[in-house]
Design goal:
Largest sheet of chain B: 11 strands, antiparallel
Number of helices of chain A: 3
Strand content of chain A: 25-35%
CATH architecture of chain A: Beta Barrel
Structural class of chain A: mainly beta
Number of domains of chain B: 2
Distance between the termini of chain B: 89 Å
Number of strands of chain B: 13
CATH superfamily of chain A: Nucleic acid-binding proteins
Order of helices and strands of chain A: HEHEEEHEEEE
Shape of chain B: globular
Distance between the termini of chain A: 42 Å
Number of domains of chain A: 1
Structural class of chain B: alpha+beta
Largest sheet of chain A: 8 strands, mixed
Helix content of chain A: 10-25%
Largest interface: A-B, 32 and 30 residues
Number of strands of chain A: 8
Strand content of chain B: 25-35%
Helix content of chain B: 10-25%
CATH class of chain A: Mainly Beta
Oligomer: heterodimer
CATH topology of chain A: OB fold (Dihydrolipoamide Acetyltransferase, E2P)
Order of helices and strands of chain B: HEEHHEEEEEEEEEEEH
Radius of gyration of chain A: 14 Å
Shape of chain A: globular
Radius of gyration of chain B: 23 Å
């Protein structure tokens, strides 16, 4: 039972270091940067907008029910300049999102995404250093 | 004879074109278009993006009213960015990863901020004039009304007539207030490819001492992009 719980879609990892704070206006107040979650789910909505791009993603629970999560990112313009491949995201495909959890329920800031083909991407298109957050603000 | 006629017509046409071009050039100059600023003033007319050094704030001191308003700030509902509105010039300069296009003409400073698609046209005035011409930014009452001049190699932007709001909504200073009494002076100084923006907020209703932010920008080859913020989308990520 304990193992099953561990295999649920949400894994909480307390980071050893606080890391560099982003300059974004809402990150420290909206997200708990001392923690990290990893959620796997099916993309249901894509919004490439400013100041915050965002996804909605359906995460299947161990009991078979589905919970919707909001995945927040920085500004679409910033991600475009970084060369983030927006056209590779498709509604209906399964993605894994990694980042600090929101201070409200079922929200996460995207620090890294695992694509259906196993590719790892970050909003800055630079490899992620655990515990260090790039500025990806709006 | 026929050849001579063709030559005369061609010369006449060239003269007419030359006169027209001169007239267009004079008109363009009169409008301040395409003019290079005089040699002594700094050339700030490039695109800029945040970077090139640390952002700093001084140690300011609240009045009782200022402290009360700061403590009352609720980031879940009070951040004007959820309505696509710029909170203050410090808040706008603080935004990372967006381009600011700055252009100088003989009569005015034109600044386009990618963040919230803010266009700021500031008349260049005599700083000693009693009531210099000022411009505001439509739809952004908390950004006041600005006039500008050069102080040696520094561009000075003087702003008054603010609606109440917040000097910044960023991290630990989120919600430090501004009142109608505020008077802001931005000093823009270029050193190589780095632009330093020192903004001093005088607001005796909220502070016993001025609030001073120093923000660095660097020259960039990025072009400005449309931001296209809508309150419906911006508020989706507002915490609940």
């Amino acid at each position: 039972m304990a193992n099953m719980k561990l295999r649920t879609c949400v894994i909480l990892v307390v980071l050893a270091t606080g890391g560099q704070l982003s300059a974004h206006h809402s990150v420290p107040v909206n997200f708990d940067q001392s923690k990290e979650v990893s959620i796997e789910g099916v993309l249901t909505e894509i919004k490439w907008v400013n100041p915050h791009a965002h996804f909605r993603i359906d995460v299947k629970q161990p009991d078979g029910s589905v919970l919707e999560w909001l995945v927040e990112m920085g500004a679409t313009n910033t991600m475009k300049r970084a060369g983030f491949p927006m056209d590779r995201f498709m509604v209906g495909e399964k993605y894994t999102i990694i980042g600090p959890p929101g201070r409200r329920d079922r929200a996460v800031l995207l620090d890294e995404v695992v694509m259906p083909d196993g590719t790892h991407l970050t909003p800055t298109m630079r490899p992620r250093t655990p515990g260090v957050r790039d500025q990806n603000g709006g | 004879m026929r050849t001579l006629s063709i030559v005369i017509v061609a010369v006449a046409a060239m003269c007419a074109c030359s006169v027209e071009a001169s007239a267009q050039s004079a008109a363009a100059q009169a409008a301040g278009q395409g003019q290079k600023p005089p040699a002594k003033i700094p050339d700030l007319s490039v695109n800029w993006i945040a970077g090139g050094g640390r952002t700093t704030f001084n140690d300011y001191q609240f009045t009782e009213e200022g402290e009360k308003r700061f403590k009352a700030y609720d980031f879940k509902v009070d951040d004007p960015a959820y309505k696509c509105i710029g909170a203050s010039w410090t808040r706008i300069w603080l935004n990372p990863n967006v381009v600011v296009e700055l252009r100088q003409t003989k009569d005015e400073i034109r600044m386009r901020y990618e963040w919230m698609d803010i266009t700021r046209i500031i008349p260049l005035v005599d700083p000693l004039a009693a009531n210099p011409r000022r411009n505001n930014v439509k739809g952004h009452p908390a950004l006041g009304s600005s006039a500008a001049w050069y102080d040696g190699d520094t561009l000075v932007i003087d702003t008054i007539d603010f609606a109440p709001g917040y000097i910044t909504t960023m991290v630990e200073r989120a919600g430090i207030p501004q009142s109608r009494r505020m008077h802001t002076v931005e000093r823009l100084h270029r050193d190589g490819d780095v632009l330093t923006i020192e903004t001093t907020h005088f607001d005796p209703a909220n502070y016993r001492t001025p609030v001073i932010s120093t923000i660095k920008y660097q020259k960039t080859d990025w072009e400005i992009m449309k931001y296209g913020c809508t309150p419906e989308e911006a508020s989706v990520v507002a915490p609940r």
